[in-house]
Amino acid sequence: MKTLVMKFGGTSTGNVNALNRSADIVVAQYGEWDRMVVVVSAMEGVTDLLLDCAEQSLAEEKGHYLVIIDDLWNKLNAVVWPIFAGDQSYEQLMVLIDTRIQELTSICQRIQLQGKSSPRDMDEIAAIGERINVYIVSALLSNRGVRCQAIEATDLIVTDDCYQAASPIQNETDARVNAVLPPLFAKAIIPVITGFIGATPNGTTTTLGRGGSDYTAAILGKSLHANEVWIWTDVDGIMTADPGLTPGARLIPDISYSEVYELAYFGAKVLHPKTILAASEANLPLLVKNTFNPQCKGTKIGNCSQTNKFGVSAVTGIFNICLLTAQIMPGRDITKIKIQIVAALTKQGLSPLAVFWDTRERSICIAFSENISNLAIQAFEEDSSLRLPGITFSQPQVTEGMALITLVGREIFITPQILSIVSSTLEKAGVNINLLGNGTSPDSLVFSVANEDGEHAIKQIHDEVILHDPMVSPRTQPALKHVSAL
Ligand code: ADP
Ligand code: ASP
Ligand code: MG
């Protein structure tokens, strides 16, 4: 039985043109597969507006959140009206939107009254974007003659209660998915499912983390033993760098799970990193394609043995990082210390981005996003569970205003020529670098630079190393004409 899961992101549903393009793609695949599932995110910008609303309900300027709610309503109506005006689904959709907006207003009022919001409130609010868009997309598909049914993933994806970054409980999710969806498939109905959200076993809404709709597609693909998962977005596929930052970025036709994981984990927004873990566990081929250029083959992500050649594939960056460096006493087990630090910080909700160690200097370097760096530094100074034997934390060296630059490619961390090419390229460009190590596999090489040098470093590595590396170029191809998502 051939099963396809297709996910359409916010950029593929954020305006009338994008929605119509996405619907064309579903119509083109309709009937080509025994079972097909469509996953949809919130419209582009909607989750940001919702979270902004929650924040503003705590702001001093009372009632400002009502202005954002108005903006949200106008944004949704500006899409729904041109597509559905004169159609009976217009009224139905507007009733649904009004109901969700009333829910949002009452949660914000409660937050304002209590003077605080909980991660659980934030998830309830953030989920509203998907819980609206799924009905818009399914109404549009119905109008195009596609038999489909909107489903909220709170009925399918069972998660833990780690609000804002929940993890699925796979066996319970498998059971729900395989009870709810097959009766629809039997009637040739396409389930149109909310991305990003799930619910705890007792039914409280959770979210899988920002950008988590990609992850939803992989979770469902895994539960259904799908043949393929296709992620539709606004670029031709996985590129050698973020095309928004590096206009010369090229399409990578095929790449391994491991390389894409490193790329996504270290900043490339194109896929949520957990998507790749879920897909690789199930050996599920992932395809990333452009909704606005569907003829382009996109990027195929699979096992290294099928896809991978040596060389540097891509470069990415995360900005506004804080690095905390501490000395380690000789004779201590660095791996054990690393695990203890990550566990202790994660327990406090202060997940480090990465922990690197320098065996020569006997130091450990922990990278945090700058917005939690103060809390993390305080935790190191005050929390006794972090005063681990063997680490000198009395005077941790703290460096703010940094960027983490990551190169990915098969085994590049253990390919010495690459480090020397990268170092000399950046030295020539006047950028100071500090090598930190590899990410979660030898397929990445991570170093830090000052924030203000970050973009320049990425462009230099891209143009001087990736595009000029004879081992790399055959794997990449110039992007086809980039069609904007307007
Ligand atoms: P969606 O709404 O489809 O989920 P996102 O905005 O989350 O889309 O992800 C797509 C964006 O990811 C692209 O517009 C691009 O700017 C960004 N991106 C960052 N790094 C890369 C990369 N290496 N290859 C492709 N896109 C990238
Ligand atoms: N709408 C959610 C977000 O903006 C999930 C997603 O886009 O994948 O983070
Ligand atoms: Mg995304």
Tell me the domain tally: 2
Under the CATH scheme, which architecture of the largest domain would be assigned? Answer: 3-Layer(aba) Sandwich
Q: What is the fold named in CATH at topology level of the largest domain?
A: Carbamate kinase
Number of strands: 18
Helix fraction?
Answer: 40-55%
Largest sheet: 8 strands, mixed
Give the distinct bound molecules: adenosine-5'-diphosphate, aspartic acid, magnesium ion
Percent strand equals: 15-25%
Radius of gyration: 23 Å
- Give the termini distance in whole angstroms: 37 Å
Query: Looking at this structure, what is the CATH superfamily of the largest domain?
Result: Acetylglutamate kinase-like
How many helical elements? 15
Classify the secondary structure makeup into a structural class: alpha/beta
Low-confidence stretches: 478-486
Kindly report the average pLDDT value: 90
Classified by CATH, the class of the largest domain is Alpha Beta
